[in-house]
Amino acid sequence: MAETAEQELRDVLVPITGMTCAACASRVERKLSRLHGVQAAVVNYATEEARVRYSGALEGDRLVATVEAAGYGVETRQAETLRESREQALSTLEQARRVSGVVEGDVESEGERFVVRVLYVPALADLDRLGRVFGSEATSSTADSRESSGRSRMLGVRMAVSAALTVPVMVLAMGGIGLEWLQLLLTLPVVVWAGSEFFVLAARSARHGASDMNTLVALGVGAAFAFSVAVVVAPGFFADAGEAHVYFEAAAVIVTLILFGRWLEERAKGRTSEAVRALIELQPETATRIVAGESAMVAISDLRLGDRVLIRPGERIPVDAEVVDGRSAVDESMLTGEPLPVEKAPGDRVVAGTVNASGVLEAVVVRVGRDTVLEQIVDLVRRAQSTKARVQALADRIAAVFVPAVLVVAVVTAVVWWFWGPEPRLNHSLLRFVTVLIIACPCALGLATPTAVVAATGRAARQGVLFRAATAVESAGTITTMVLDKTGTLTLGRPEVQAIEALDGWSEDELLTLLASVESRSEHPLAAAVVAFAQANGTRLSEPSEFEYEPGRGVSGLVSGRRVRAGRREWISPESDSRDGTRIYVEVDGRLAGSIRLDDEMRGDAPTTVQELRRLGVDVAVVSGDAEHPVRTVASALGISTYRAAALPADKASFVQAARDSGEVVGMFGDGVNDAPALAAADVGFAVGGGTGIAIEASDVTLLRDDATLVAWAVDHSRRAMRVIRQNLFFAFVYNVICIPIAAGVLYPFGGPVLSPMIASAAMALSSVSVVTNSLRLAKTS
């Protein structure tokens, strides 16, 4: 039952709108985690997405209602279609409402026809079913946009207007000119219009019984502005309290600087996701579909399995397809990193996003939408970016209680300065209250880990390394022992005939002819190598009249009237001495006729891979299912002293587990089905994208390129990412630990400085920007 339930678990990435700080993300995360059927929810402030793992059916309207109850929104899309009568429209709407992911809908009259409109959550919606309900006349548009550039432009406009009005206010205040009424008029639009977002979002949080960074800003700016307005409007009220100052310049500067910080932050956050956007943009929006010999341009979303598409020279391939006509060279560098185009002919597969370099191809669609290789890569990167590293747990716990704690500190600070501060006490009390609120922004703390993870995984994807989760980014850098498979990992995985040893009067040519003839019916890699060698040497093969395959032993058959058996020494000639290399022993008519030695050639990048891992301080071991001699030979050539040969899949997993039990952090690099248990047993599993699907699914890191050196690159990149995360967390913690007490005035009795609200707001904005900028260094590392 537990296994069945596990199989039913599904993940979706849902874009969240309206979040402005890490506390927002934490609140949405708590709300989603309480939904029925949700096993886990992780909300990433940097990517503005919620990763929801659930079982059963997750209703879109419940998810949207839950997020809205927290004070935020879910990105939805709108679809509409026309119907001739109200009855048809209402019937269509009723069918659409039964489609998963549809949130709401209505019917409106438009002349003599009726428009059916629905809102749906793309991540949850059954788009194929919705398309069938709405038909070909349906249109779709984005209802809520999470476009980073749009918000960045909006913040830029507000910041520019705010700055233009703030400069004269500062001149009037700091120049001792006064003119408080003019300062009030100039500051009013800054606070009420440019800074309206702070107050609206703070009020929304308050309605839901929560607080966040907007609460701190709204209270600080509101207190400074309201106090100043009171001084201007009713100066007599403050006469007995001593001289009362106005702080319009503080309120205006705070709004301007925080808007500036958010503008920079928004631009920087957008840059962290450039890798995903670049991958998405690789797929064209249209394709040329062929129907009954006629070609027509259609949207990618209109293509279905089995459709024929025409791909001209220079065009990007729209979907995963199988070539049925034509020959061409296809640039697959976006997928493999290899610069040379790959020749394609009928029967070959082509992948969405790659470029047809020369000839015209006709192909049949075999994968569309989310099933294409490109979409799976995009999904893998996005899912990795939406997960949390273990190191973020401390930051999350602190962020959850940070804002309420700051409010308490601010109130206590105000009370202390009110009763025991210097004159004018009211002014000093207000300033300290406002400064503590402003400088205590938790954004830097919330951005420290996710921005680094997003930048690191994006850079890795461009390099050809896909981390499946943030925990893999975190763990890869801690590896102390790397266990390497041999075949296909350290060697090319293509055995080649090295020597023929004929016995008992047989010639080498005769032995090769008999062996290759019987092996021609086998699908074993060693058999294929023998046949290829024989054909390359012009050997004429005979079709065996009988053939039998003995799993784990070899093959037998009747070739030109002779009974031939070929296979392992233990089966053919157990009394023979063990020989060097991998050998196929041949028996003809019941007598040993000789053997053929095959070796698997070493990969050119294997020495560099081992050397780089050792440079990083990682011990290297080899574990393989191959025989003792070839495994020992490869290990010796690479200077690896720890190896294990003749290892079954369970043996490989045991080898890895034993290393872990001894205290090592173990990485496993393999490419075959027999490596899957070991990949799953390792702390971090590495698989080649061209390997088996089982191996890739069992791994934590997938290498898109057949380049073993990427394993060492991934370890090094992970270490750089963790250094950046630790730097970010250090600066975020130190910033708050040092600045909040100074803002509260603890150094004042000892002659130390106190911070003004303007300096506090500038420092707060710069702290977030510095964290994001530091993370962006990961996107540029080689």
Question: What's the quick description here?
Answer:
The protein is α+β, with helices and mostly antiparallel strands and 782 residues long.
Molecular structure report:
With 782 residues, the protein is an alpha+beta fold. The chain is 48% helix and 21% strand. The chain is built from 27 helices and 30 strands. It has a seven-stranded mixed sheet, sandwiched between helices. Strands 10-9-11-17-12-15 form a six-stranded antiparallel sheet, with no helix packed on it. β21 (546-550) and β22 form a beta hairpin. The longest helix is centred in the last third of the chain and has 36 residues, at 709-744.
Mean pLDDT score, rounded?
A: 80
Helix content: 40-55%
> The biggest beta sheet, please?
7 strands, mixed
- Give the spatial strand order of the biggest sheet: 18-30-29-28-19-26-27
Instruction: Tell me how many strands there are.
Output: 30
Radius of gyration: 34 Å
Weakly predicted, low-confidence segments: 1-7, 141-147, 691-695
Structural class, by secondary structure, is alpha+beta
Given the C-alpha coordinates, what overall shape results? elongated
β content, as a range?
A: 15-25%
**What is the number of helices?**
27
End-to-end Cα distance, whole Å, is 47 Å
